[in-house]
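Exercise 7.
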Amino acid sequence: MVLALTASPYADKQRYEELLANLKIKLVESRKGDELDVTDYSQEIESEIIYFNFPSYFYDLASMIEELKKPPLHFLFSKGFIKTPNPPRKLLLALQPMIAKMNTPLKYNALKQNAILLNVLLMHELLQTQTVSTLKSFIEKLRSRKEETKAALDLSNNPLLREIEEKAMNLITRGLEHPKLLNLSDIVKEATVEDNCLIFAHYRDTIQVIKRELALNGIVSQELVGQSKNGMKQKEQAQIIQDFREKKFKVLLATSIGEEGLDITNVGTVIFYDNVPSEIRLVQRRGRTARISTGKLKILVTKDTIDEAYLWSGKNKEKKVEKTMKNSREEKNQRTL
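Solution. The predicted structure, written as tokens, is:
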């Protein structure tokens, strides 16, 4: 007999069934934290969602990004490559390989326009969810790739991109950053009075910006990022984790590398700087606290933006997990009968 445990199965039925089939799992049991046979092993998590308004000093920059996306969006919509005038990035990502297989003289231009649109939508997302500095770093990296792709070349040569970059630099110089970043130090100071604090952010550039902002406010932090693309070596990662366990510093900044397999018992507070539309990543991030005692979770959200949409997407998928597991059990029981 083989016993397998997981805190985060799939919400999607097809992926869940594939998991059971691949691992030859015949019986699935699930438990919630408040059920009698697990209450002795689970700890309470005090959750708080902290909302921030999208600041008015971002409006001009957001409008410029909206203008930048109009030409590629018009091309794809008018030529029938997309059916909606406001497609999500997920749809456009799935569309790219589909266009590549098409037999049409418009194929290569469509691939370029779709890639441009994907980059512009990401710029808008970075402004809504991350920091202006993260957005500026993305534009700089985009320019560095202009010899590699036609999409990067076209965007780099667009005068409007230069205006966006200058506007972002102007905001940074004036100290007009994302309100999540500007309020983070106070949140961290409160969280680290007695315990360690773990902050999750999706992008390495954001981790760097947060580290600088905390340092300016007298808060020492260290980063934990992956090994790829000039990241951290495994030995460096292990040392950072050990130092955090020993409370040589109180604040750890982590990308997705910190979501799984990070066994640190003294994390009093976990902070989501941004949100991810994944039930698995939501559960894994949250599970870094309340290992041996009550923990706290603080979720930072930019109101009425994709940041909030990602938060509720992850939460709704998490609720769907139990339903998926229940339906799967019932179907198996019916087949057995």
